[in-house]
């Protein structure tokens, strides 16, 4: 398999367009056409991780965090980023990063946290805005099924657990072919009336290019009339964080102790306890202060995240408990998630879980 082959499999789980605009995801180092001998899955790509890849004969590193976040102007080995990139290039090792594309996946980072903590029926905490689009197009009556089938095959018309969803309206279209036109129906210079249907389908934004290609390829007209609208509808399958419920409610102090043990956290920093039991839990792996308001709005009893500043603990405002367990700690099981996913998708492929320690924060 090539780097590109494996990239396509990873993008089934976490399409790159789902990443946040500020992020740097996908293939960061290496040739997409290179044949892969083995893949090493890690949270961070550091020098010791590259050394481990060399030792294990892995020429692809699949990393959660991107080693290249902003532009590199030099490669002199002056910084740890430059040294990692140089060593990877020297040993012909490709580096692929997933980061917020996987954060936004409903099977990604936060789903894994929910699994580890026993949070049931998790839902997206902050749905990604502008991610649902609506296509409206018009086709001759006799071509309706062909056009619809092509759109469905390209991924249009999927709503939650349902597929092949559309809405059809019959009507009459009119047009007059110009002198240089090549109409499939009608005559040059004459207004033509045609019984047509209006086809309406919605889709997730990353599928737009292939859906429009399917429309143009399947449509009989030389010029295809269509409209694309960005909807404000909530996308239940895409976004940051998750919220769900424990099987049984538990005292705050007991839950925090369980949280510390289960997530292997050295320290749990938390806001004032409220003296009520924990049942509804919101989580957001990595830096999640921006989701405090969403956790309160969702009615969570506790919000688990990391990298909170002093004053952000005040934002609990007596409505929930905020718990900061550490950045690495919230994302540590992401490696296991990716190894399990790739092992199921390509069982005969050599995938290794990195044993290198990459947490930069130490505690006394």
UniProtKB/TrEMBL annotation:
PANTHER family: GTP CYCLOHYDROLASE 1 TYPE 2 HOMOLOG, NGG1 INTERACTING FACTOR 3. GO terms for cellular component: cytoplasm. One of its GO terms (molecular function) is metal ion binding. InterPro entries: DUF34/NIF3, DUF34/NIF3_bac, DUF34/NIF3_sf, N-reg_PII/ATP_PRibTrfase_C. Homohexamer. Keywords: Metal-binding. This is GTP cyclohydrolase 1 type 2 homolog. Belongs to the GTP cyclohydrolase I type 2/NIF3 family. A divalent metal cation binds at residues 65, 103, 327, 331. The keyword DNA damage does not apply. It comes from Flagellimonas alvinocaridis. It comes from the Bacteria.
């Amino acid at each position: 398999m090539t780097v590109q082959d494996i990239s396509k499999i990873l993008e089934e789980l976490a399409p790159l367009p789902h990443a946040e605009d500020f992020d740097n995801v996908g293939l960061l180092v290496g040739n997409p056409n290179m044949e892969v001998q083995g893949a090493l899955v890690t949270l961070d790509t550091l020098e010791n991780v590259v050394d481990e890849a060399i030792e294990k004969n892995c020429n692809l590193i699949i990393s959660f965090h991107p080693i290249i976040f902003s532009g590199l102007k030099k490669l002199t080995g002056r910084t740890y980023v430059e040294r990692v990139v140089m060593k990877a290039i020297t040993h012909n090792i490709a580096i692929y990063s997933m980061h917020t594309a996987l954060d936004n996946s409903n099977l990604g980072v936060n789903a894994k946290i929910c699994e580890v903590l026993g949070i049931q029926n998790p839902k997206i905490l902050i749905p990604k805005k502008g991610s649902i689009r609506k296509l409206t197009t018009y086709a001759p009556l006799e071509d309706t099924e062909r056009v619809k089938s092509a759109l469905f095959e390209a991924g249009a018309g999927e709503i939650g657990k349902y597929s092949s969803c559309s809405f059809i309206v019959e009507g009459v279209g009119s047009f007059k072919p110009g002198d240089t036109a090549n109409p499939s129906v009608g005559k040059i210079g004459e207004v033509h009336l045609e019984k047509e249907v209006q086809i309406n389908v919605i889709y997730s934004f990353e599928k737009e290019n292939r859906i429009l290609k399917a429309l143009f390829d399947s449509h009989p007209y030389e010029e295809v009339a269509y409209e694309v609208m960005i909807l404000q509808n909530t996308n239940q399958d895409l976004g940051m964080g998750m919220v769900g419920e424990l099987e049984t409610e538990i005292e705050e102090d007991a839950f925090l102790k369980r949280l510390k043990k289960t997530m292997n956290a050295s320290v749990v920093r938390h806001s004032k306890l409220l003296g009520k039991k924990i049942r509804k839990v919101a989580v957001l792996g990595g830096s999640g202060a921006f989701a405090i308001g969403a956790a309160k709005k969702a009615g969570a009893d506790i919000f688990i995240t990391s990298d909170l500043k002093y004053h952000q603990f005040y934002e609990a405002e007596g409505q929930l408990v905020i718990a900061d367990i550490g950045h690495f700690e919230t994302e540590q099981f992401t490696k296991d998630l990716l190894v399990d996913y790739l092992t199921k998708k390509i069982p005969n492929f050599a995938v290794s879980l990195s044993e290198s320690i990459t947490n930069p924060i130490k505690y006394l």
